[in-house]
C-alpha cells in the first residue's frame, strides 16, 4: 500500500468524501486513485471491480465520464476500509 498520495489523488479523495455527494468526479481519476492500492478491471458483464490484496470490490457499471452517486459511496467505503481519510491521509 502506498505511504502517501500525490496532489491529484488527494484532490480525488476530497471530492469522494465531500458533502453533498459529488456529481463531477471523473471515472478516470477514480481508476488512477484505486490503482495506487490494487488492480482495477472491467468484468465480463461490463461492470468494474477493484482487487486489493485478496479482496475484490464491485464498483458497478460506468456510464459516461463521471461516476454515479452510488459509486461515490462504494468508493468512499472502500477507501475507509483501506484507512484513507477525507484529507487523503493513509492511516499507518
Kindly report how far apart the N and C termini lie: 10 Å
Number of strands: 3
Radius of gyration: 12 Å
Regions with pLDDT < 50 over 5+ consecutive residues?
A: none
Into which percent range does the helicity of residues fall? 25-40%
Sketch the topology as an H/E string, one letter per element.
HHEEEH
Strand arrangement, major sheet: 1-2-3
Mean pLDDT: 88
Give the helix/strand class: alpha+beta
**How is the main sheet built?**
3 strands, antiparallel
Domain module tally: 1
Strand proportion: 15-25%
Total helix count?
3
User: How would you describe the shape?
Assistant: globular
Record keyword descriptors for this entry.
globular; alpha+beta; 3-stranded antiparallel sheet; 3 helices; 92 residues
Structural write-up:
- This protein is of the alpha+beta class and about 90 residues long.
- It has one domain (about 5-80).
- About 35% of the residues lie in helices and about 15% in strands.
- The longest helix has 13 residues, at about 70-80.
Short characterization:
By secondary structure, this protein is of the alpha+beta class.
Describe the SSE topology.
Layout: H1 7-17, H2 27-34, E1 39-42, E2 48-52, E3 55-60, H3 69-81
Helix pairs in contact: 1-2
Amino acid at each position: 500500500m502506498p505511504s502517501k498520495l500525490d496532489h491529484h489523488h488527494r484532490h480525488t479523495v476530497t471530492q469522494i468524501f465531500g458533502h453533498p455527494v459529488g456529481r463531477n468526479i471523473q471515472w478516470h481519476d477514480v481508476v488512477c486513485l484505486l490503482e495506487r492500492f490494487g488492480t482495477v478491471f472491467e468484468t465480463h458483464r461490463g461492470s468494474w471491480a477493484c482487487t486489493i490484496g485478496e479482496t475484490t470490490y464491485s464498483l458497478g457499471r460506468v456510464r459516461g465520464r463521471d461516476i454515479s452517486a452510488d459509486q461515490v459511496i462504494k468508493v468512499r467505503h472502500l477507501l475507509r476500509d483501506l484507512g484513507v481519510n477525507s484529507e487523503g491521509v493513509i492511516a499507518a
